[in-house]
Amino acid sequence: MAGNQADGDITSDARQPPKIDTSVAHPARVYDYWLGGKNNFAADREAAEAVMAARPTITRDIRANRAFLNRSVAYLAAEEGIRQFLDIGTGIPTSPNVHEVVQSIAPDARIVYVDNDPIVLTHARNLLSSTPEGATEYLEADVRRPGEILAKAAGTLDFSQPIAVVLVGILHLISDAEDPYGISARLMDSVPSGSFLVITHPASDIQAEVVAEGARRYNQQVATAQTRRNFAEVTAFFQDLDLVEPGVVQIHRWHPEPGISVDDYEVSGWAAVGRKR
Ligand SMILES: C[S@@+](CC[C@H](N)C(=O)[O-])C[C@H]1O[C@@H](n2cnc3c(N)ncnc32)[C@H](O)[C@@H]1O
Q1: Is the CB of 140 under 6 A from ligand 1?
Q2: Is the CB of 144 under 6 A from ligand 1?
Q3: What is the mean pLDDT of each successive set of 10 residues along the chain, which is 277 residues long?
Q4: What is the pTM of this model?
Q5: How far separated are the first and last CA of the chain, in Å rounded?
Q6: Phi then psi for 86, rounded to 5 degrees?
Q7: How far, in Å, from the CA of 40 to the mean position of ligand 1?
Q8: What kind of architecture, by CATH, is found in domain 4-276?
Q9: Angle at 157 between CA 63 and CA 89, to 5 degrees
Q10: Which one-letter DSSP state was computed for residue 127?
């Protein structure tokens, strides 16, 4: 890891035994199971399988979400010259992680990862393998307290220069009462013009009945409930931003890899990238 400024945070956190409750399913571990990972427990697998029974296409949608994450940050590094990324709700590390994608394009890129699930901290070393020219940092923090994240991230990121705020697959875990729009606006208010917001969000209006049943099962078993949102509700996160073409689209239709057919199937999730004016 380059940028030793926050070594203290990781070291002091790592001395505490992580508070991991394996008896209840958690979003990071359920997601890991759907991605084919091994960092999950019986309760996570049971919840994941219950959703899969109602919605067998969930694993393809989850892979599409992860592939979008890689495409969008590669686009920002290669096409928009972005060198700083704040990836909130990063999840259990899955190769390639954001820093591996963007530092292969721009070795000097700086990435701060954030998650509130202590299991992610136990894998943080996988998120900290920065190039010597760049920097990576991991913060255990909650997106519902954006001020705390911004203060800590300032140890690694320069808030006078553009930053990509990455909220991929996390906002559905924030209920309306917890004000997801206010959280995203607070984060974007703190970054300069030329910064970007990257979002994916599970949809309530694509394959509506099947995904509603999947969400019902998820919410019965997983510690953090999900709130699926429709096209207009996801578009509202970009109210004061300029959307990068093609705007808010199904996750697999955003800048697909050349030669990949995106018309053979539907993904029940919205994706977009917006630029701050
Ligand atoms: C569905 S996973 C998405 C992982 C990754 N962003 C991706 O798209 O591949 C959601 C992640 O958000 C994290 N998360 C949920 N609520 C959070 C909160 N309030 N603050 C920070 N992270 C949170 C979970 O622990 C989990 O790792």
Answers
A1: no
A2: yes
A3: 32 56 96 97 98 97 98 98 98 97 98 97 93 98 98 98 98 98 98 98 98 98 98 97 98 94 94 98
A4: 0.94
A5: 32
A6: -120, 100
A7: 15
A8: 3-Layer(aba) Sandwich (3.40)
A9: 30
A10: G
Cα–Cα distance measured from residue 97 to residue 128, given in angstroms and rounded to the nearest whole number = 10
Residue 19: in which H helix or E strand, if any?
A: none
- Residue spans of the domains in the chain: they are 4-276
Cα torsion 224, 225, 228, 233: sign: negative
69 C-beta closer than 6 A to ligand 1: yes
Counting from 1 in the atom list of ligand 1, the atom nearest the Cα of 89 is 12
Other residues' Cβ atoms within 10 Å of the Cβ of residue 61: 25
- Ligand 1 near 40 CB (within 6 A): no
Tell whether ligand 1 has an atom less than 6 A from the beta carbon of residue 116.
yes
Are the beta carbons of 86 and 79 closer than 8 angstroms? Answer: no
Q: Confirm if 99 and 109 have CB atoms less than 8 A apart.
A: yes
Closest CA to 89 of 7, 171, 183, 148: 171
